[in-house]
Each structure stands twice: as structure tokens, then as C-alpha cells.
Amino acid sequence: MWPWIVVAVLAAWIAMGLWQRGKPLAEGIGEAWPEHTVGEVAFLADESWFDAQGGRHLDQAIFDEMLALIGEARRLVVLDMFLFNDFAGNSEGGSFRPLTAELADALIEQKRRHPGLEAVVISDPLNTLYGGLELDHLEALRLAGITVVLTDLDRLRASNPLWSGLWHLGLRWLGNSARAGWLPNALGPGRVTLRSYLALLNFNANHRKTLVVDRGEGWAGLVTSANPHDASSLHGNVALRFEGAVALDLLASERTIAAWSGVSLPGPQPLPGTSNGEGARLQLLTEGAIRDALLAAIEASGEGDRLDLAVFYLAHRGVIEALKQARKRGVEVRALLDLNRDAFGLEKGGIPNRPVGRELVESGIAVRWCATRGEQCHSKLLLRRPGDGSEAELILGSANFTRRNLDNLNLETSIRLLGTADSLALGQAAAFFERRWHSSPERTTSEPFAAFDDTTAWQRLRYRIMEASGLSTF
Hints:
By secondary structure, the protein is of the alpha+beta class. The protein folds into two domains: 34-260, Endonuclease, Chain A (2-Layer Sandwich), CATH 3.30.870.10; 283-469, Endonuclease, Chain A. Helix content is 32%, strand content 22%. It is built from 13 helices and 21 strands. Strands 1-12-20-19-18-13-14-17-21 form a nine-stranded mixed sheet, with helices on both faces. The chain has an eight-stranded mixed sheet with strand order 3-2-11-10-9-4-5-6, with helices on both faces. A hairpin with a 2-residue loop joins strand 15 (342-343) and strand 16 (346-347). Helix 1 crosses helix 5 (161-169), helix 3 (99-113) packs parallel to helix 4 (136-143) and helix 8 packs parallel to helix 9 (317-328). It is globular, with a radius of gyration of 22 Å.
């Protein structure tokens, strides 16, 4: 009987993996919300650069704006952040900004000052190592009357079906304990159980980074690539802050995720699209709709147009092929990429950006590397500027340009802005890219592709296998 038992288990494993990879999407995933005409919208960035003596300089705005928005809220705050902890891994933490404490303290203080304020924090269970740790700041939020939601990731399709097939056959039902840890926590202090690492291998995540608050009689929202994570406080990031109907779309998108864990978010329902084709317009995008918008923007570009992207991970084959085809059409394409060499004190192997960078250069696309010294170039941004001066387009948010981030596997939120190239936020985004692209000894922001053109055939092969299989962290 043993051979038949083994065959049955393997068949069940494979069948479960296939089901988890292709099961119907949960309601509300991968949505392109209506376009809305928008008045006030601001582009924000966290930037670092190095002077001639090697000293690091920081220009940061994102979390200052986030704290200011929380300080204005009276009725509702909904915060959804992927990494919300003070773990530093193997990094030296002396120069980190205590973002976790700042944000938690701001929420607690605002709740104290306005007891009627409804505050909800949504985050990824990675922060607790999937139930293997208790975090003081999350407990402090709960004690202050703030609802803390750790996202139910089992609603998502499998990023790593080879493992998730076995996980969903029975391992997921094993309980976890924050008091029974015996293995070192690879992300920070404390000890965790084996079960924490078994859950980690699924590679699913709520990777969103959003904020919605009431502001006077209206509503404001912020979508960013930045995490309130101490060891990420030196990273380069981007954000858009906006007001009006799009903020209600953002609230509705978070209402779906909170409901997975049995939490009901108050507040008004979204409004119908209000775009009349004139003025700047905003559109909320989640998951696979981000991919569709990126591909549409790239495919809409023609000879004389410019495409600029600044992204932490570039690996999605559809996006890469679209960029190569755009270059063949005469589009000027520039890619500013992270070197993928640092991760909180650990050295990475340059995948996927090193082999992808080489592929882009071979196709005639200009590539530069962000100048980093321990931190990451963590932006996720595409800017399209037509050569004839017509409507420009900006897409930014939480989603890296990878299969996991764009193919309805992670939870992601990005925002799409359309308007004239000289409109304030689009002009600010263009100026941000130019500052990062053009470097000098007195203000080093990026380095030429040739400085790190060391891709091997093995790296190329590893990247393609990892991207196709899901056996990766990107």
C-alpha cells in the first residue's frame, strides 16, 4: 500500500498547489477604479545623496506628511502598511529614524485627544512572524482602542505553489505561539517557532502602503512605496498625497481587506467617476490593474516620447518586453534601478536587476544604478512624457515591477496621475527623476551602468527560474 499512499499524497499536493495558484480571485482584487478630476495633489519623495567627501545627505518628506495628516483627523484613520516594526536585521541601527514609534505614538496621541476617532491599522502578518512574536507597539495600539488587523493572506493565490500546495493540505492548521520560539528571528530580536518559517515560505504579502483620513469636511489619501520600518528609514521612496473622491476609492479598497478579518470600516462609500477629460485626473489601481496600466502606458508611447522608470525590482517579463518594444519604436527609455546588493545588513546577489539591466542595455535602453551605501532605492515609479507636449502620465505606489507584485499574488496599491507635463505634481515627479539620474561628484545620486556591469550567465538563469517559479522574495 505504501507506493499508493505516496502517489496519493503527491497527487493531492500537486492538485492543491494548482488550485491555490489558479483559484478565483477574492472580490475586490485587481481593480481599476474610476478616474476623478482632482484639485490638490502633491508628489513627495524621500531622497539620499552623497557629497564629495562621501557624506550622506537626506531630503525626506513622506512620513512628515503622513504624521501631519494623522494629526488633522477627527473621525477616521485607516493605515495599511506592509512593514510596521523596528527590526533592523544585521544593520547598524544608530542612524535610523524611529518611524515605527513615531507613527504608533501619533496614532495613540490622536486617539487620546479625540476619543471618538475611529482608527484602524492594517498590516502584514510578517511583522509578527506569522504569530511567532508579540510586538509592543501593536499591543500599545490595541490598548489605546485602535483596531489592529493582520491580513488574512489565505485569501490570496499562491506565489509559491510548490510549497503552498503542501501548506494548504494541512500545515496551515498548525497553531503558532509567541511564547514557544526556539529559532532565531532572522529579521530582528527574539525567537520564533519553526511554524513561523514554514508560513514565510508561502511568500504571500499584503504589500500595500496607504493612508486615508478625514480632513475637515472632506477626505485625504496618501499612496506610497515607503514603509514605517526603522531599518527602511534611509531608503529612497515616492508618494502622492491627494484629496477628494479618490480618497474614498482608497477607503473602499481597504474596506475589502479589513472585511477578510471580520473588521468593518466606517465612512462614506465611493463616488461615481467625475472625470470630464479636463484638468489633472487621478485613478486608484490595485494588484493586476497596476500591471495593465503600466503596459498600457508603455504601449501608448511612440517615437519622440520619453519613458522614465525608477524601481526597486524590475523582473516582470511582460513589462520588460514592452519596454524593449517601445525602444524599437523610437521611445527614449531610461531605467534607474537599485543594485539589489543590500538587505538590512545582508549582501544580496544582484538579482533581478543586474541581469535585467544588462538585457535592457543590450536593447538600447539607458540604465543607471542608484547610488546606495546600505540603503535601498525603493521607489516604484513610471513616468510617461509625450514628445508633443500632450498629456503626461505617472504611476507610482507599492508595487514593484515583478510577477508577484503585478499578477494578483500580493496585495498592492498604486495611483495613476494624468495631466499636462507642467502641472505641479507631474513636474515635481519629473524633477525628482532628473535629480536622481544626473549625478556629479558634489552630489552623487546615481552611477553609470558600466560601474556594475558584472552579470554572469548563472545570474541570468537564476533570475529567469526564480521569476517563473515564484521561488524568490521578489
